[in-house]
Predict the structure.
Amino acid sequence: MHELADSSGTGAEQPDGPRLVRREVLALGGGAALAATMPVSAPRAAATGTSPAAGSTATVPVRLVVNGREVSVEVDPRRSLLDVLRETLGLTGTKKGCNQGACGACTVLLNGRRIVSCLTLAAMHEGAEIKTIEGLETNGELHPLQAAFVEHDGLQCGFCTPGQIMSGIGCIAEGHAASPDEIRFWMSGNICRCGAYPGIVAAVADAAKRA
Amino acid sequence: MTTNVIGNPLPRVDGRAKVTGAARYAADFNQGGQAYAVIVGATVGLGRVTGIETAPVEKMPGVVAVITHRNAPRLPYAPHKSYIDPATGERLHVLQDDQVRFYGQPVAIVVADTLDQAERAAAALRVSYTAERPLVDPADPKARPVVPEAGKQPDARLPADTARGNADSALADAPVKVDAIYEIARENHNPMEPHATVAAWNGNRLTLWSKSQFVVNEQAEIAAVFGLPPENVQVICPFIGGAFGTSLRTWPHVTLAAMAARQVERPVKLVLTRKQMFFMTGHRPRTLQRMALGATADGKLTSIVHEGTGETSRYEEFMEALTSVTTFLYSTPNVRTRYRLLPLDIGTPNHMRGPGEASGVFALECAVDELSYKLGIDPIDLRRRNEPAIDEGENKPFSSRSLMKCHDLAAERFGWSRRLPVPRSMRDGRLLVGMGMASASYPAFHAPANARARLLPDGTAEVEVAASDMGPGTYTSMTQVAAETLGLPVERVRLSLGRSDYPPAPSHGGSWTMASVGSAIRAACMAVQEEAARRPQDGRPVEATASAQRDPDVAARFSMHSFGAVFAEVAVDPDVGTIRLRRAVGAYGIGRVVNPRLARSQCIGGMIGGIGMALMERTVLDPRDGRPVNAHMADYLLPVNLDIPQLEAHFVEEIDPHVNALGVKGLGEIALVGMAPAIANAVFHATGKRVRSLPIRIEDVLSV
Amino acid sequence: MLPFTLEKVTSVQAAIAAASSGRRFIAGGTTLIDLMREEVEQPAHLVDINTLPLSEIRIEGSDLVIGALARMADVAAHSDVQRLHPLVAESLIEGASPQLRNMASIGGNLLQRVRCPYFRMHDAPCNKRTPNSGCAAIEGLNAGHAILGTSDHCVATHPSDVAVALVALDATMQVRGPRGERSFPVEELFRLPGDTPHLEHTLLPGELILAVRVPGGPSSRRARYLKVRDRASYEFALVSAAAALDVEDGVIRQARLAVGGVGTRPWRLRMVEKALIGKAPDRKIFETAARLALEGARPLSGNHYKLELLPRTIVRAFEMTGEAA
């Protein structure tokens, strides 16, 4: 495990945070052209006056089993599982492609199921088993699907690859890898902008046969 | 002695690093004690910042700095212009004044201890503006085209106007004509990896782990911006998570990361959000093109008129090769091209895979298809009848041109002979089936490059060059070039890329990396062998640095381009209008293929990029304030796995002795060029409806 | 994202008590976290309900009962669902992506927020997000917006696929709140925007969805979900249709139809259904009936094509009911 590169929880905390007032003046006036001097508000003026949590970034403890190793971390409740992996635990193999659940680059296995780690909070997963791309090799041997990705050239830039492989493992485990067409459907939650799809399908099909 | 390493379909040498998560991209270089920066973008499309309430945000948890134009350091911004920057205009000087030139332009940067804190604080920052309605729609009558400054010179690389013969009168006299307007939406590169920079200062020295297709230019630009000697700036980028042109230039966020790190005296990590990548880091410009063809009844082209306009920003003139291919793809005595720019209140566009050519060839190849139906001549046959002997625009021979060979090979693999010529005559069950084809072309560029080779006493070799690998397989193919030149097995050659202190290389784009960097590596390997032969064997490493460039005499004698042919079959649902590509075949003449496995992957990837261009991709701006409304990966559609059918990429045997010593022409871009017109032509064949604007969507074919 | 507290509850009673004091439930989180990151959602207190025993999928009599916390993927893969209600399974796997379907619960799916881009952007007016701020979509870019059930205040479509199927099948919701348990049709969960687009559903404060109940019936096995979109997968519907037919002796005895992508809520089309009863199922009949779908339709500047696409989708969906999935 890498040293913690993040300073979560160690920053100067402001127990009595800012109390901004919600503004509802917005940039657009229902389609009318904007007057040249119309003041326009900032986005998301915060309404944080009433919440006890609002001013602080209190952390909560969470225990995860990541790639078979138990780790206990103090996390900001806002922190996604993805950011805990990448920024808190230094496991940067899992990628942040969109942070919107719309690309699949951050796919990991959560208790054996493939999920997008950007759209779940780490603090919700006390005791959960997380498998990431870093946890697939055994004794220096690539997982069969990792080897198949190299063999079938199911990658180019490599950025979506960890998510593709974790998703492919899920796809095979679900029994959704019986034919190329089935794989194409069930691997459509992972976008590859380089366009390595044919190789990805071949790799998943190959590994599924060996599984 | 190892021979014939070039041409072997080796698996990627960096494959293991990429399938294990060990390959590190810019945002993976976390530094101890780093702070996190988040950019606040303008929420108006044109105007001035009148107020920023920084005080409440500065007090928020974890916030260490809020930097705006009011408190940002005045940066030297010494003149710096690379060939990758627009020749006319000046880059955005970030946080140096109160002006808002486009929606989303950075107006502040917030730095905090954690990412969550920085995001929250950035969202809470209240900025007020005076705003005007920006001009963002090229169709707006207030948008006035201009002649690009850099295209006015007689020797311009991208001339604004060209003419041979008298195209307009020949068009008027032509017995058969096509005269149509083609439109292509604004596209964003959308690589999977967001732009990211981790900046760390050590005294007056700056290290940037930063996503870049051109590390030596990023080094030079940041040095100029901050007034530093270039050697004080180190840019590191061993892996690029796709870029397709978006990381050719150094965008303002790199400056912001460095500025923030200097201000807070800690390393700073700045990663753009996906949304920010829709307005801050360039895009393929929207284009509007008139393409007019005149021909004789037996299909001989007598005239081509090509008038194209591309959008640009108000502060820079971005130019691309929109009309270039028109001057040499076909034989005809009369050609006139005109290229104009439309300055709008948007961020400056930039090169996106197949820049210019992809858009221009779409118009040309759709128009030729339209002509084929008017003439009743098979589209391949029509192209054959107009195949030129030389580049008639330059009046030079081609160094090699295998276009008709490509058509023959692709047509045979595709089964073009099964096509029924009449539109809307082929069906599969209820589905309308269409077949279409197009030619493709892209220049075989070559830029001066340098490389260093080192022979180690243990019999291995190291090669270093400041080039990059955004996915085509540069690590692998260059290792093959070095291994072949040195006579070593590839396992004994270690190639290092992506550091600005390595010997300088040109930008990783324009399909010239193999030609340029490959030639430099070959030269360095030959030089180090000579050096080793000269020197006594004393057990010390032997090192040599060499450069390579194209012989200017040869360059002056020949016209150098890759050519290709793309065939596509679509099925259109006559009820609900869904358009699905069923299969596609591409054949390319690209000189020597260094690694067929990776070349095939790269080609298929480019074809998939073209599928996106044809059927899905567009960034839509709200005309009221210039905001991209679909700045989201779920709303900007890219092909997913299920969209991609069986694709074939073939290479015709082509030996080009002129382009460079390796005989390579490059294939990254040409693989995208040609796909969109092939699909558009197939959609016409399936439905009988000609759609001249990209992307072609359900609503475009509904009235079928 | 604004800071919040997060607590876990292990009983339905505790969940309802927490919600009654203003706390928000979080289940799969795929909508909520996404919108919290945009600060469109700003809950101060979250209650994690994922460990509540509400994930069961079972048969009760002729009804299929789906626990509110059953995941989309598990519901779609369940053999009873596939056997008795293929429409539900088909609508589920046409939605989202495999990963999101592993995360998102049925209850959360029904409560997901709209996909209007202006709703997601704080610097644009949106009556749904910020009441009385205006609607940027009505005179903005609105190709994806609704043509049915719109108001002068909101034109956003409801994005769920499975909700369309459930509405077509007369499914009911079982909910429990501080005042006890109640049931009502899924269709009645969704409000029309009217002049209060920020109020999207009819749950009372503190109410928790326990289950969705899908009645069995003769038409449910001859039922298909057709989702029309530019991308083959992982995209919201331009138009979708859940169609079911019960045909006996060559005559339609019962028809069911709900559509998505066109309404401000999942849109049941009873007039189209009625027009089919007693007729022989053929394309002409479908076409005639489908035209009734447009009654009251109000297209916007960018979505006139939906007037054409909606009836075509309906016709095709009814045709598909006679074909294998």
Notes: Chain C touches chain A through 48 residues (CB under 8 Å). Chain C has a mean pLDDT of 96. Residues 49 and 55 of chain C are 11 Å apart (CA to CA).
